[in-house]
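QA checklist item 7 of 12: single-chain prediction sanity check.
[x] sequence parsed
[x] length recorded as 119
[x] structure emitted
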Amino acid sequence: QVHLVESGGGSVQPGGSLRLSCAASGSVPSINSMGWYRQAPGKQRELVATLHNMGAERYGDFVMGRFTISRDSTRNTADLQMNNLKPEDTAVYYCNAEAGPLIDRKTYWGQGTQVTVSS
């Protein structure tokens, strides 16, 4: 079992920056990748960024170089640095972890943190 807790959400003006952090606990050694997804009202949850243990990164098409994901294995955290935020980035951001062997892969989610971009 993996437990994820997000922090760092809030309100910011367009063009501003926020840094989200996700702390993992529990069966941390079983984690293969950590990442961030988001869900805006009335829309499906979508990929923001993921980072695999082996270093492979994936970003949503809308990111276009504005966001950077990083992981700190000593602190068991995954951070998302978001720059040049736009009103359309407003959403609840969820931390995600994929853990366990391929034949029994499990997905874990945090409780979500609100990001609001508005003038």
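[x] summary fact logged: The radius of gyration is 14 Å.
[ ] second reviewer sign-off
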